[in-house]
Amino acid sequence: MGPRAFRPEDRHVFFGRAREARELADHWQANSLTFLSGPAGAGKTSLLQAGVLPLLDPDVVDALPVGRVSSGTRVPVALRGGSNPYVFAVLSSWLPYEAPSGLSDVTISGFLARRRVRHDQYGDPMPTLVAVDGAEALLAAGRDPAASDDLFAQLATALEGDRDLRALVVVREDALPMLRSRREKVFRRAVEYAVEALEPAAATAAVRGPARTAGRPFARGAAERLVEDLLTVRRVSPLGDETEERLPLVEPLQLQVVCSALWEALPPDASVVTAGHVRDLGDVARSLADFYDGVIDEVARDAYHGETERLRARLREAFVDEKGGRKDVVAGSAESAGLPDAVIRALAGRHVLRLEERLQGGSRWRLSHDHLVRALTRGEESRAPAGRVDPAEYRRLAEAALREGYLERARDHARTALRHSGPDQRLRADLEQLLADIAYRGDDLDTAVDHYGRASVLLQSLPGAEGQVAGVLTAISQIKMAQGRFESALRDLEAAALRRPDDAGIRVELAWVMWCSGHVNGAVDMLDTVLAEEGDERRALRARGEIMADLGRPTAALRDLGRLDWGYSPSARTAYALALALEGRVDEALDLVPPIEHETSVTVLLRVARIRDAAGRRDDVASLARRALEDGVRPPLPRPLVEVAERLVRG
């Protein structure tokens, strides 16, 4: 046990949430949309993974793995332009063993429609159960709002179009009001289920159950004593006055921390955990203070210039009152207390701070628990020495930093994890992919290719990893495409196709590379073949439709693109608009042109130039075409379009 979420395979050691698991399973199966909410650290993910999923009968419901809005390390981040990264991450979680190329540019409705419908013993279609965990990440500062809105809209569309679909969205309680306020009817009708910390009896069961399963049970009264210690908070004011308070609930995170510390401290020959062990080895206040010390050190290192003592002083000043209790800070005023918003978010994400809504209005930040006060007020000499390096923990920190956009921090954590990963080839491959993703986000494309290459070599030595190898080779190809290295990209994709010859997504990518490198007929033939075999394959339709528009064949372009929902993609939208303009429907085309002030796709810029040229608005046609031809732009203009752009520049 330790401070991490329980997984489905941990169900045999997950105790104390039987009632909540049954109730939530019933809500999920009975309602179109359910919101599971609760404070950070309340165990929402554990409840879902180890409590609810094992209760679902596979002969009655078709439950997909839990979806996450961040891709982690399995899926390369080099996506085809216009793909929604959040939707891509969720779909990759729902179908973790499919090659990433098979999910690029796929909508939620499209993904669900292509799955085989499962039927129960009576021949009726089973309800499909899907979940999205960590939805607060879609509502936080720093995310892509258009992509977030698109994911929610896609989920609403899927729910409204499929009466057998059931969705569960897991969200931190402070982000729940933003979900409630969404305009889609299905969101307003959602059933809400709130989970709180553990009541004493449930906490006692959560202590006893795993120990009994591990063959080292608690003696009578020992588990109760540990829980009572967790419920008791002793405060010492700066003047030395002591007070004691009994809390009503036990935080699951703190229960894990304390049990883990006690378990590690037990003598090897102890067959039963006694009250004496709890008294002598299970110092609750010390264990929690040690844990929160480490968390505060981590936040200081990552978001406060490494100034740990200064951060502690600011936290004491802002959040601890003169009696040694917790003090509130009005949300929004943290900056004046010397805590920038990035630090506040980091502390909240690591369960140090909690945002609370007040009945009289307004929000307040406060320490998430009274036990945190000791971590902030005890002297440096009483802190525990640093423990061993856990590569899984540093990998988690790296992924969290990457989600928050702190690339240097993410790279440092990932490198630390890699140095201590030992001989585990799969872990090392995942970490190499993570380092590649970080480098890609930082626009260090050569380094990204190097890390993806090392990941590919590691994966090739593992059984059953052909799909992952193909995905990594596809990512390498996409990066080389961005660099204009079309021929090299073509070789990598051909190698990926050899490993996954039935993967339509890889063949579509192959067609894109052929098109960009000037092999026009080969690209079109490849897409025709995919569509002949796969039918209305979304990625192939989009690719062929865009190429047809760029080639000046509007009828064929409109035929393909008109069968798609391309609302999120500026590339597909401008291709459709260009086809309209080439058919003489220039007013319709101009209405579809998206804002281009910050547009970086040279293909999109050239299409807008061609649309304006067709409409007779030639004042900025040459400048747009010139932007499309600029040196150093990534990815560069496909070779068949260079002459088109040069002609527009000449006027």
Beta fraction of the residues?
5-15%
Structural class, from helix and strand content?
A: alpha/beta
Q: Count helical runs.
A: 30
Average residue-wise pLDDT: 86
Query: Distance N terminus to C terminus?
Result: 70 Å
Instruction: Report the major sheet.
Output: 6 strands, parallel
Outline, from the CA principal axes?
elongated
The whole-angstrom Rg is: 28 Å
* Number of β-strand runs: 11
| Poorly predicted spans | 72-78
Portion of residues in helices? 40-55%
How does this structure look, described?
54% of the residues lie in helices and 8% in strands. The chain has 30 helices and eleven strands. The strands form three sheets. Strands 1, 2, 3, 4, 5 and 6 form a six-stranded parallel sheet that branches. Strands 9-11-10 form a three-stranded antiparallel sheet. A two-stranded antiparallel sheet has the order 7-8. A hairpin with a 5-residue loop joins strand 7 and strand 8 (242-246). Helix 18 runs antiparallel to helix 19 (445-460), helix 25 packs across helix 26 and helix 26 (570-582) runs parallel beside helix 28 (602-614). Mean pLDDT is 86; it is low at 72-78. This is Tetratricopeptide (TPR) repeat protein.
